[in-house]
Specification:
SH3 type barrels; single chain; mainly beta; six-stranded antiparallel β-sheet; 104 residues; 14% helix
């Protein structure tokens, strides 16, 4: 598991959750830091949209439709959430560079 890899796994929050793609940011011991990837954009507020990074090369990244990296929240997940999971893709070099610039 490397930064900019994309996996599909179960993400939980509060008393809910769902299976979704996530972008690996980093791994420290048994904790993996990720950003959620979403297709929901149009109905979000301007404040939320401001933190959404558009993935231009979404097909090459293994995604099935236009998607966005939600940089508003870094999610810490147990490494065990990725047991038995395979990466579906990774950001293109161009999108990696754009994402780093977007965050900075």
């Amino acid at each position: 598991m490397k930064p900019f890899d994309i996996y599909i796994t179960y993400v939980s929050w509060d008393d809910n959750g769902k299976t979704r793609p996530v972008l690996i940011i980093d791994q420290q011991d048994a904790v993996v830091h990720v950003f959620n990837i979403t297709t929901q954009y149009e109905n979000k507020s301007d404040a939320i949209r401001a933190g959404y990074f558009i993935i231009n090369d979404w097909k090459a990244a293994g995604l099935d439709r236009q998607s966005y990296v939600d940089t508003n929240t870094v999610r810490d997940m147990p490494a065990s959430a990725f047991d038995g999971k395979k990466e579906i893709g990774r950001l293109s070099a161009v999108d990696e560079k754009r994402l780093i610039e977007f965050i900075n």
